[in-house]
Amino acid sequence: MRIATWNVNSIRARVDRVVDWLIREDIDVLGMQEIKCRPDQFPREAFEAAGYELHVHGLNQWNGVAFASRLPLEDVTIGFDGMPGFGKPAARPRLNFEGFPTEDAAGVPLEARAMGATVNGVRLYTLYIPNGRALDDPHWHYKLAWLDALRANTERWLAESPELPLALMGDWNVAPLDSDMGDPSFTLGSSTHVSPEERAALAAFETAGLSDVVRPLVPEGFTFWDYTQLRFPRNEGMRIDFILGSPAFAELVTEASIHREERKGDGPSDHVPVVVDISLDEDDDDRPMIFG
């Protein structure tokens, strides 16, 4: 099964590129971030014509996550327990979004940043972690709180199901190693994306039981290049898009790739896809019984 994550930076602007890539690269499941539209605005026809079913969570022209899959998706969920919101508390209670809350316990609006789904016994999350903006910005504290709540959920999920093949994938907006930051406008240690606090928040997922399943197979390569200052031609990018997997998921990974070529051409996203292949061989007696 071939699984991918891609911050598409507005699916309505890039639907043809994304669908063409899905077909060309034989992708089974794609987790998208920053779709920038509501479900009723999502360009479904092109995906469905290519044989993909869709699950979309978007509230406005910002943020938004989605799955496109040519395999059946089950147990689709929005957000996660304790996910914090951002902004001012709502003046009045909001209606739930497809049965899921749209504000946190304090009445602060929840953004469209997380969706989970199960495919062939594998639990996947497509995630758009808050940017943080600047170290003195409230959005930075929101980012840290968001990551901490996700980490707490990860610990619980794996404590309840230690053999669960689980992958958290998406745009993490953190460059964990110095070699992951090639954009000179960011100062190591004192800029957002590379601050000690953000790096520690991401490293906590390893303590929680996850590991980067792509880096061992693809040790070098950026996944994002800003549109300005010729960042891409100069290769002044960042590695901020990751697939973090549980031990049971990591054991299934056979190949991984970063599709740098998708940053080229007309109208690209500023991010590129990250892909893993996993083996679900029914004859493998060592695989977790969840697949039986």
Summary?
The protein is an alpha+beta fold. The chain contains 5 helices and 12 strands.
Per-chain topology:
Elements: E1 2-7, H1 11-24, E2 29-33, H2 44-49, E3 53-57, E4 65-69, E5 74-78, E6 114-119, E7 122-128, H3 138-160, E8 166-171, H4 196-207, E9 211-212, E10 241-245, H5 247-250, E11 253-258, E12 274-278
Parallel strand pairs: 1-2, 7-8
Antiparallel strand pairs: 1-12, 2-4, 3-4, 5-6, 6-7, 8-10, 9-10, 11-12
Helix pairs in contact: 3-4
Spell out the helices and strands N to C. EHEHEEEEEHEHEEHEE
Number of helices: 5
Low-confidence stretches: 283-292
Cα separation of the termini? 16 Å
Largest sheet: 6 strands, mixed
Radius of gyration based on Cα positions: 18 Å
Number of strands: 12
Mean residue pLDDT: 94
Describe this structure in words.
- The protein has one domain (2-281): Deoxyribonuclease I, Chain A.
- The strands form 2 sheets. The chain has a 6-stranded mixed β-sheet. Strands 5-6-7-8-10-9 form a 6-stranded mixed β-sheet.
- The two termini are 16 Å apart.
- Strand 6 and strand 7 form a beta hairpin.
- It is globular, with a radius of gyration of 18 Å.
- Mean pLDDT is 94; it is low at 283-292.
- It is 20% helix and 22% strand.
- It has helices at residues 11-24, 44-49, 138-160, 196-207, 247-250, and strands at 2-7, 29-33, 53-57, 65-69, 74-78, 114-119, 122-128, 166-171, 211-212, 241-245, 253-258, 274-278.
- By secondary structure, the protein is of the alpha+beta class.
